[in-house]
Amino acid sequence: MTLSVLSRKDKERVIRRLLLQAPPGEFVNAFDDLCLLIRDEKLMHHQGECAGHQHCQKYSVPLCIDGNPVLLSHHNVMGDYRFFDHQSKLSFKYDLLQNQLKDIQSHGVIRNETEYLRVVVLCALKLYVNDHYPKGNCNVLRKTVKSKEYLIACIEDHNYETGECCNGLWKSKWIFQVNPFLTQVTGRIFVQAHFFRCVNLHIEISKDLKESLEIVNQAQLALSFARLVEEQENKFQAAVLEELQELSNEALRKILRRDLPVTRTLIDWQRILSDLNLVMYPKLGYVIYSRSVLCNWII
Questions:
Q1: One Pfam family for this entry, by name (predicted)?
Q2: 3-state helix/strand/coil string of 111-129
Q3: How far, in Å, CA of 67 to CA of 295, rounded?
Q4: Is 143 helix (H, G, I), strand (E, B) or coil?
Q5: pTM for the whole thing?
Q6: Gap between the Cα atoms of 119 and 107, Å rounded
Q7: CA distances (Å), 188 to each of 5, 153, 207, 208, 209, in order?
Q8: HSE of 183, CA atoms in CB hemisphere, 13 A
């Protein structure tokens, strides 16, 4: 069934689904390609805005506000396509297609003990990220759920190089409740890579973790948390590299590559052309095969 015979509601569903499948760093490319197929600017703009908002939350799209990095996620969503940044105390809309902030407004924050702890944890996390990530970004958010205060730490680093035919994203999220003596840290590390040179290969790896931290004071909690994140992410990275090496040695070699014979002999193209009775037609302005190209190939 072609898009021309679909109802508007079905079109919206198909467009949104295709856009949400776009790998990290490739949303705008997917949108531009779909625009060429749909040819409905108003429909594409609306669906692009909706899907772009979800894409930002899913892949922790980084922004820079007043010189400070901001990571978008569903934890700092305010509704009506708005996000909130604890550091700058601003709420805003973000247009992913135009890479532009819109409708920026100031937003107050209650300065209590949890807010001070958030700032201390963010400082400790920045030291870790700056030491381990080439272009890493991090952010720490506050959230209150049923009168309980939580801190949510997010880390993101990416390499979007379409010219190199490879895009990659590393992100992690760590949540813990502000308790007097002991807190449980829940974490999730996620890696996604997309290779599109000669083969369209998607790799997604994730891991969920749970650890406990003792709380003595704010400085101790911040340092212990940063060490915990460093230890768990180092272990995860080592495991990922080991798995990819095994995948490269086994699966990729057997599945993605063809076994070609190695004869180390010259191919006699003249004999092949004679056997196949291929004829040149110079009067028609072209030559079927050129000897300047088909010469001395070695397998």
A1: F-actin_cap_A
A2: CCHHHHHHHHHHHHHHHHH
A3: 59
A4: strand
A5: 0.77
A6: 17
A7: 42, 11, 6, 4, 6
A8: 23
Q: Assess contact for 116 and 218: CB atoms under 8 A.
A: yes
Q: Are 117 and 129 in contact (CB under 8 A)?
A: no
Spell out the per-residue pLDDT of the chain, length 299, in tens: 455 577 778 888 888 999 999 989 889 989 998 898 888 888 888 888 999 999 999 999 999 888 888 999 989 998 888 998 888 888 899 999 998 999 998 877 767 788 889 999 999 999 999 999 988 999 999 888 888 889 999 999 998 876 667 888 999 999 998 887 888 999 999 999 888 777 778 888 999 999 998 888 888 999 999 999 999 999 999 998 888 777 766 665 555 555 555 555 666 666 665 655 544 433 333 333 332 332 232 22
- Collect contacts of 216-222 with beta carbons under 8 A, ≥24 apart: 218/116, 218/117, 218/120, 219/120, 221/117, 221/120, 221/121, 221/183, 222/117, 222/120, 222/121, 222/123, 222/124, 222/125
The Cα–Cα gap between 186 and 70 comes to 21
Structure tokens at 77: 């969503």
